[in-house]
Every structure is written in C-alpha cells, then in structure tokens.
Amino acid sequence: xxxxxxxxxxxxxxxxxxxxxxxxxxxxxxxxxxxxxxxxxxxxxxxxxxxxxxxxxxxxxxxxxxxxxxxxxxxxxxxxxxxxxxxxxxxxxxxxxxxxxxxxxxxxxxxxxxxxxxxxxxxxxxxxxxxxxxxxxxxxxxxxxxxxxxxxxxxxxxxxxxxxxxxxxxxxxxxxxxxxxxxxxxxxxxxxxxxxxxxxxxxxxxxxxxxxxxxxxxxxxxxxxxxxxxxxxxxxxxxxxxxxxxxxxxxxxxxxxxxxxxxxxxxxxxxxxxxxxxxxxxxxxxxxxxxxxxxxxxxxx
Length: 301
Known about the structure:
Blueprint: E1 2-9, H1 20-29, E2 35-42, H2 56-63, E3 72-75, H3 77-80, E4 89-92, E5 97-98, H4 110-118, H5 123-135, E6 139-143, H6 146-156, E7 165-169, H7 185-188, H8 193-198, E8 213-214, H9 216-219, E9 226-230, E10 236-238, E11 241-243, H10 257-268, E12 275-279, H11 287-295, E13 299-300
Parallel strand pairs: 3-4, 6-12, 6-13, 7-8, 7-9, 9-12
Antiparallel strand pairs: 1-2, 1-3, 1-5, 10-11
Helix pairs in contact: 1-2, 4-5
C-alpha cells in the first residue's frame, strides 16, 4: 500500500540540513512565500542504508528546519500520529490513503500474496492468494534452470513486441554470478537503466535480451511486464525461518539488516505486471527455499 502525504510550508532556507528528508525540506524552503510538497510513502519499501527510520525522519526534518510552525501536514489519520508532539499542524485527509492497487491489471492482491510469502510465512494464506492470482491471469512460476526461465518468457511474449521483461536479482547475493547472473556491484554499475527499460527488444542494451541484471536499486518504483527473478543466497529458508547469513555485507550503519532483505525481496517480487518466473539455483542450500515457494502456490515451469 502507498500512502500520500501532502505538506505545505513557507520559510527561509536552512543550509545545514543533511539527511535525505532534510534535503527535500531544504529544497522546499528555497521557494519564495509558499509551496506544496507531496510525498508518496510506500510501506515496506525501505531498502537503502539510512531509510530504516521510516516516516519519522520527515517529522525530524521539519522539526530541524528554521520554522517548523510554518508547515501543515495533510495525511491519513494513522500517519498523523507520527507527527504528534511536534510543533507542526496536522490535518486528517482520509482520501490520501492510496489503498487501491492499479499496477497489476486484474490482480490487486499481489502485494498481499508476497507479504504472506516473505513476511508472515503463512502457507495457507499464500496458497489461497496464489489461486486467486492464477484465476486473474497473474502467475508466479518456479524453475531451477535459468535457460528454461528465459525460454518460457521469450515464448510467452513472442507475439508481443512491445512487452518488456528482464532479469532482476538482489545486490547482496554471492552465488548468482556462477550461474551467469551478473549482480555484482561493478557489473550492475555499468547498467544503462534508461535503455534497459526502454529500448526495443532487439536492441543490445534492452532488458529483453535477458543477459543483464537490474538489482533492487535500479528497479524500485519501476515496472516490467514480466520478471525473471534470480533468487539469491542472501535470503533463504533454514529450518523454516528466513536466513540472511550468506548475504554480502552492507556498508554504513544498518540497524536491522534482516528487515532490509525482507523489503528487497518484497520489491523484487512485485515488479512484474503479469507475473514472474523465479529461478532458484540448483544448490543444496536453496532446496528448502524452492520447496517452500512451491508450497506457497508457485507453479514449476
């Protein structure tokens, strides 16, 4: 679910603002007399170092600006509590709770299914939602062979030249490069994101070539028609619980690395409008994850 927060303010520029929310507040303060700042806050979308504070960072940003009292925050009632105690005016706006999903054609329950899989480990709920998704034409598929996944996608969209499909993978996995999934930092830094999403399928830089990889950092907020998700070793089941012990390290201070990994896979699993085929590497420490995803209602190719 995404929630829209609308904030109005007037006030002078304060140059010492440093955090990302503070920088946005700083930019807004440069506008003479008044302005409106609109923020779309996606729950469970914190994947970067420094994002873990969530919405409260915006309260802190306003509190630290030159004139907190010049701001008025318009938001759903559930979010205004974040700003309680601050010298900030709040206005309840129920219509700013954007709780109707329109990304996925006829399948509005994709996020609920993904939450059941990666957040709650709720097999019954996941299977129920998977059946509803299937009835709507949205599919989560499974394979342990990367070429099989690619061939399935190419055949599926053979008569749809405008369709966009590509390979996604977590940036913190260590094992995918051995299977020709180039998710390393140096490889993905060379990705030309604009051409990857927009060039025609036959273009060498197009995502449809299925030979280059976008990670969570270059796919968050963007969409494809279909996704080939290469599941990483940074988020696997061990004795029935999600485990991140094989994850690459994260530079900078991270308060809850496990939460970041959950959110990363939430993002990666929700990039395809028609669905996704999930490649789970044929290694022993992935076996439990593959079996679990199948029991969640994901269908082998």
